[in-house]
Amino acid sequence: MRVTNRPPILSVIVPCYNIETYVSDTVTSLVNNDQDDFEFIFVEDRSTKDKTYEALLELTKRLKHGRVIQHEQNGGLATARNTGIDAAEGTYLTFLDGDDWLAPGYLKDLVDSIQRHDVDFVRTDHVQVNGIERAVHRAPEGRRNVPLDPRTSILPVDDTTMVDYPYAWAGVYHRRLLDKGMLRFHDGLKTAEDRPWIWDLHRRAESYLVASLRGVFYRRGVTTSLTQIGDVRQLDFFRSFDLVLAELANDPEVGLLRKKALRNYCVVIAHQLLQRSRFDRPTAAKLRQMSADALNKMSEDELQAALIGMGEQRVHLLRRVRGGMKGIAA
């Protein structure tokens, strides 16, 4: 609990679910970033397989201003992050998943960056960790450490851009975004919760920059991670992209931005279909049906444009699922 009336400069929101194995590393990395004007909010999302909650209660005693909020029932990552946002008091907010960690001093550098430039949000690179392997993943915007209009980083359609780099934990966000109706996630989304979120930021925020920071370590291959579990929750990406398309409907540049969103959608559908062997048979059948439904909502011209340059395997697969092989564009 805070013992001062001064609000924190930074709130760090850490959703946690079945991550007892990793949470000690996570908290230790936050201890190595701790400052008097930082707060750390851990949202325990009713873990079912371990004692994540009990571990958090003990480990967070090492932080000057750490607190644990436990959900009455599991709500998923989006809802857990929203709980943390609602509890946050900081001028700036950032996120960290409960099985990841930060380099020492990273949070200070992150706050220095957003304060120095007074932008709405800052995005960073990150390091992906798979066992003992480390790989730097750069944010796809090449312009670094200069304020930018977020809209300028959405396009082009056929290249990887900042809306294809949706990781909420790779950055820091000014509280004023909340006042403008941004920053919260769509409650209940079990996966791809950051897709409509990142699109909204890039469409409606006024300024941002990409900082050359690489202090977030993102752990891949965690068996309890939803990305590793082939069940029906994975299919929430359909709802996520449908939300993106619905929210684009009133955008003044809807024609151009919709092309980008549809291409994103097709890329993710193809990825899931190519990985369908990890699903049980009923879920795999549902994936195929929902994929067909989503693709059939696209006009032939829209689909043709989305598939250009996507590669023969993915184009063939998506065309076959949709029905009809007309105009294959590899």
What radius of gyration results from the CA coordinates? 20 Å
Question: What distance separates the N and C termini?
Answer: 57 Å
Structural class: alpha/beta
Q: Please give the largest β-sheet.
A: 7 strands, mixed
State the order of secondary-structure elements, H for helix, E for strand: EHEHEHEEHEEEEHHEEHHHHH
Strand order of the largest sheet: 3-2-1-4-9-6-10
Poorly predicted sequence stretches spanning 5 or more consecutive residues: none
What is the number of helical segments per DSSP (H or I, 4+ residues)?
Answer: 11
Percent strand: 15-25%
Q: Roughly how much helix do the residues carry, as a percent range?
A: 25-40%
What is the 3D form? globular
Question: Can you give the mean pLDDT?
Answer: 94
InterPro entries: Glyco_trans_2-like, Glycosyltransf_2, Nucleotide-diphossugar_trans
Domain Glycosyltransferase 2-like: 11-142
Keywords: Transferase
Protein name: Glycosyl transferase
Question: What does the model show?
Answer:
The protein is 38% helix and 15% strand. With 330 residues, the chain is an alpha/beta fold. Strands 3-2-1-4-9-6-10 form a seven-stranded mixed sheet, with helices on both faces. The N and C termini lie far apart (57 Å). The model has no long low-confidence stretch (mean pLDDT 94). InterPro entries: Glyco_trans_2-like, Glycosyltransf_2, Nucleotide-diphossugar_trans. It holds the Pfam family Glycos_transf_2. Keywords: Transferase.
